[in-house]
């Protein structure tokens, strides 16, 4: 029973890491979009 619990916890931890990694990618993409818009706005001034 202990081995099953350890395996289950490991799988859940890996899944959580992937979720956080995906959220990081989303925030990075949003940051790039904001940077692009700011650069375009400054270029038009």
Automatic annotation (TrEMBL):
Similarity remark: Belongs to the EcnA/EcnB lipoprotein family.
Protein name (record): Entericidin EcnA/B family protein
Gene Ontology terms: cellular component: membrane
Keyword set, alphabetical order: Cell membrane, Lipoprotein, Membrane, Palmitate, Signal
GO biological process: response to toxic substance
Pfam families, alphabetized: Entericidin
């Amino acid at each position: 029973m202990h081995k099953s619990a350890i395996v289950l916890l490991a799988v859940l931890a890996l899944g959580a890491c992937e979720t956080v990694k995906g959220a990081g990618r989303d925030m990075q993409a949003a940051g790039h979009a904001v940077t692009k818009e700011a650069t375009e706005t400054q270029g038009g001034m």
